[in-house]
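Researcher: Structure prediction, please.
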Amino acid sequence: MKLGKENEKLEFKKTTSELSEGVISMVAILNKHGGGELYFGVRNDGTPLGMDISDKTLRDVSESVANHVEPKIYPQINAVYVGDTHCIHVEFTGDNAPYYAFGRAYIRVADTDRQMSAAELESYAGRDVWDGEVSDKTIADVDETVLRDFIDRANRAGRIDFPFTNNEQVLNRLAVTEGGRLKNAANVLFCGSPMLEVQMAIFAGIERLTFNDIDRKSGSVTELVGIAEKYIRNNIRWRVVLDGSIKRKEIPEIPIEAVREAIINSYCHRLYTSSQNNEITIYSNRIEIYNPGTFPEGLTPQDFINGKERSKKRNPLLAQLMYYTKDIESFGTGLRRITEACKAAGVRVDFEMLKLGFAVVFYRPD
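Model: Predicted structure follows.
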């Protein structure tokens, strides 16, 4: 069994004697793609060789990354079996480029790592963040129905003052094109991609053991937000309140406004260069909404809940577009609104800062 060939996001090393070279490859991949994978115990052609792996072996890999990569990253490092062969798998992401290994910056070119020149670093430091970079999509790739709906909602919200005319004129007015191509924010919001997915599952208990349901959908951010919200709506408990009126009142076990806020935030703040998907996971005692975008370093959710910090946007152009439709506000108040809605409903909510992402956890009432 082979793991395929090395590429711009995948590197193989035969043993941990090549640990320093592996760390350099991680940095080169981070600077080019924002994340990737590294295996120890695998030939360059993808053939597993295997190796003896102890707790010390894994600790040596972890310490080498911690001591020699700047800014800090927090990879997942695991002993895995590839067929019958024992290898080490390292999965890593980061959005604070440029990254340095042993004091030097590297860039990935095909399956090799090249040291960046001073001119490249200077240019790199001034480049746009991901959502403002130009994608390979053109105006012809835009879903007109999605764009029309966006303009209608933005007009109703009172945050833009022009109607839909045609795709090209509207996109140009939104400043999301360059040279006839869409910026990444417009791509994920109005086109979608087979690579942009939401993974949804229901487990029978409180652990990831027995599935009651599993599903996966792809589409634009707009479509996936709606799909994720509907999945939760359809799989939580609702109680009926009779208040004397003709129309009965149905109350969800978790406030839907908090659920929607968490889903929208998960797409607004995710790391789009990551190969991981957004996830909706329903357990018997809780619901988790996960996105592959780590929380800003040095800050905690409580800083924003208390209103002491300003919003730090990973995807500022995408955030601006979602602000137009009132899907988000621009002042970093999402976590506070989630907290307040849950407090009013008597629902516990936790915010989990993970090494490879962030999760909002709603606890279901008994």
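Model: The CA atoms of residues 143 and 222 lie 11 Å apart.
Researcher: Thanks, that helps.
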